[in-house]
Hints:
Elements: H1 4-7, H2 10-17, E1 31-36, E2 43-51, E3 54-63, H3 66-78, H4 84-100, H5 125-128, H6 130-141
Antiparallel strand pairs: 1-2, 2-3
Helix pairs in contact: 2-3, 4-6
Amino acid sequence: MTTLDAVYQDRLLDLAATIVRDGHVIPEPTASGSAYSRACGSRIKVQVVLDGSRITDYGQQVDACALGSAAASVVGTAVVGLTVAEVRRAAAEMEAMLTKGGPPPGGAFTDLAALEPARSFTNRHGSMQLAFRALEKAFRSAGL
């Protein structure tokens, strides 16, 4: 069993304390989406501007636990400039890390490794994936 000290280490808490692009409102987003975790009540709303399938701007409103906030911070740092396919790949890697013992996502999402110690907290997987789930809803609403 993972100890709370291993999960809530300094790097994770630093990410959660300063959520990148939290409160950044896009006046005319291409798409938006939201996600909610029943386990802890965490919520996130995202807005994106897309140029084809490339993300050119991203904003989020995060009201989440430390795990969800840390993940949202990493996503907020990483997504601008990436394609929808690259974000979907990172979301799949995150899912595999949490549920199948896979390695943490790579590339722009390497800081999601800070969440690896929390994989044994299955009831919190939803909060750690909120940003990706909200983004997927936004992508689908844009027809992608």
